[in-house]
Design goal:
By secondary structure, this protein is α/β, with parallel strands linked by helices. The protein is built from 14 helices and 26 strands. The longest helix has 21 residues.
Length: 557
């Protein structure tokens, strides 16, 4: 037996919903469970994606035995190409998951031109993967995407179960309920630690079955006289199937809009998860060839994402689909906590166009993929873990998960409500918190991975709030005196009606600052720019009671 502890280190997914990534470490070897991302909030201006800070893994790529992905949602898989590119693909560990999950992984790696350099392997439920001191087993679970799995990680200290996202759906669309008997078997064998999904820890009872959404969608469709636009998660392949079935039953053609919707539907069809009647799918350019009552459009954008197809339609900025009065937009998804504002803004724009909007508040057209409180209790009772570490949720939901664990008999001292960067260490003596490591966020701006600091975001917020002044001053190389009238440019600055007067006063302020610096024989450009910045910032605040960004440029001639 190893002298070192078994460490479970979440780098993402705790204290938040999204960017799930967990390091399981034993005998200096690592298994990485999930490599997720999340989408930016409104104040993250210009940021496209948010990744976990994986600084802990830099320089340790040779220690990683395997990456295991529980399912194909972005918050569990989306970081994979960025992580591998940053850590170095030539030494990349093998990536394991269910067939659909790995098809989505290959597609992502393909987009980043990494697919040839990374070993991606399909794993069936119940197969054992040997990875250094770990034996890994995928256990079939039900979720809102096929091939969702829990991961059992076995070591000679004991077994850890990372549930991934799950619910106990007794009538799943694909007819494959969760492998309850294997979970119970793990409980009988003795489970050391359960790392469980907390997403719906605040909702009593059981989650409704995914199967209920299909008939309700058909019922909603039957009452619509114009075009129907359904928005859902692109990865919710079962929901796409249900929309196709409802459209086929009512004699409507189906249009797929959004790159990820087309891509995931094609992957689902190739693996047999989606069955589409011949001739029902048409391209966006063919919409005009059919009357409105014969069209159903399936689109991305259920979370109000800035660049998504539905958001662009709502802002009349989509190149292929122009919404108009009489269209019905069906939101077959609920907002992820934190996305409510963006979703509401999109809905308001749709009403402005004249569309009817149907959400889950109006009809039961969505079923959550995450178990409610009774399902969390069922997982705890089946697996009978010695220790519990709630995963996948904000601090409120993690706290509620801890209360549920206590309610079914787990000792309070054996419940560890953690946070990103705080490792749980387990050994023969028990479990305890380890020393915190660096964690947080990495921003993706375009295709570049940004620094973990938020200097750029702070600057963007300042620019958006109060604008910018750029001042160019030209001074003599000999004595530092001003040799040309300062040039002042400003953008986005809320100013009084007499802007010319303000500009003249600014130029005077620059001249006085330069005269003072010349008298004090200050010649260093950096120092001069600092003096100008401070003087101008104070002057501008005094005049307009705002703090725009002030950018002085000093040129010597």
């Amino acid at each position: 037996m190893s002298s070192g502890p078994l460490r479970v280190l979440p780098l993402g997914g705790l204290g938040e919903i999204g960017k799930n990534m967990t390091v399981v470490e034993y005998e200096d070897r690592i298994v990485l469970v999930d490599v997720g991302l999340r989408f930016p909030t409104a104040e993250m201006m210009g940021i496209d994606l948010v990744l976990p800070d994986f600084a802990y893994l830099r320089g340790r790529v040779s220690d990683i035995e395997a990456i295991v992905v529980t399912h194909g949602h972005e918050d569990h898989l989306g970081c994979l190409p960025f992580l591998l590119r940053e850590l170095g693909v030539h030494d990349a560990p093998p990536v394991y998951g269910g067939p659909l999950t790995m098809a989505m992984a290959r597609s992502k790696l393909d987009e980043h031109k990494l697919s040839r350099e990374v070993h991606v392997e399909d794993v069936n439920d119940g197969e054992i993967i040997e990875a250094g001191p770990f034996d890994l087993e995928l256990i079939h679970m039900t979720h809102s995407i096929p091939d969702a799995s829990a991961v059992a990680i076995k070591t000679d200290l004991g077994t850890i179960l990372v549930t991934g996202d799950y619910k106990f759906d007794q009538t799943p669309v694909d007819g494959r309920p969760a492998d309850v008997s294997r979970l119970a078997e793990l409980g009988r064998e003795g489970l050391l630690l359960l790392c469980g999904d907390s997403t719906n820890g605040d909702r009593p009872g059981f989650a409704p079955s995914e199967r209920v959404a299909g008939p309700n969608l058909r019922d909603v469709f039957s009452r619509c006289t114009g075009r129907i636009i359904v928005t859902s998660f692109a990865s919710n392949i079962h929901r796409v199937q249900q929309v196709v079935d409802a459209a086929a039953a009512l004699g409507r053609k189906v249009v797929l809009v959004g790159r990820s919707m087309k891509k995931n539907t094609n992957i689902g069809r190739s693996l047999g998860h989606i069955k589409v009647p011949e001739g029902i799918i048409i391209g966006p350019r063919e919409i005009a060839q059919f009357p409105d009552h014969k069209i159903v459009i399936i689109s991305t954008g259920s979370q109000g994402e800035p660049l998504s197809a539905l958001r662009r339609m709502a802002h009349k900025d989509h190149p292929q689909v122009e919404l108009h009065a009489g269209d019905t937009v069906v939101f077959s998804a609920t907002p992820i906590p934190g996305n409510e504002r963006a979703v509401n803004e999109t809905i308001d724009r749709l009403y402005h166009i004249g569309c009817d909007v149907i959400t889950t508040k109006d009809a039961p057209i969505h079923a959550s993929g995450h178990g409610y409180q009774e399902e969390i209790k069922l997982m705890l009772n089946l697996t009978k873990p010695r220790y519990v570490m709630p995963f996948h949720g904000d601090h409120k939901r993690i706290h509620l998960h801890g209360q549920l664990a206590e309610a079914v008999g787990v000792a309070p001292e054996n419940i560890f409500k953690g946070e990103n960067g705080l490792p749980l260490e387990l050994d023969a003596k028990g479990a305890r918190w380890g020393k915190k490591v660096q964690s947080g966020m990495i921003f993706v701006d375009g295709v570049d991975i940004g620094d973990v600091t938020d200097v750029a975001l702070r600057d963007r917020r300042m620019l958006s709030a109060d604008g910018i002044f750029v001042v160019v001053a030209t001074i003599s190389e000999q004595d530092g005196s001003s040799v040309a009238e300062p040039e002042v440019i400003f953008r986005g600055v809320p100013y009084a009606s007499d802007a010319d007067k303000l500009l003249d006063q600014l130029r005077d302020c620059v001249e006085k600052s330069l005269e003072r610096a010349a008298k004090d024989e200050i010649r260093e450009i950096d120092l001069l720019q600092e003096i100008l910045h401070d003087d101008l910032a104070a002057f501008v605040y005094d005049k307009i009671k705002r703090r725009p960004m002030v950018l002085p440029v000093v040129v010597e001639v």
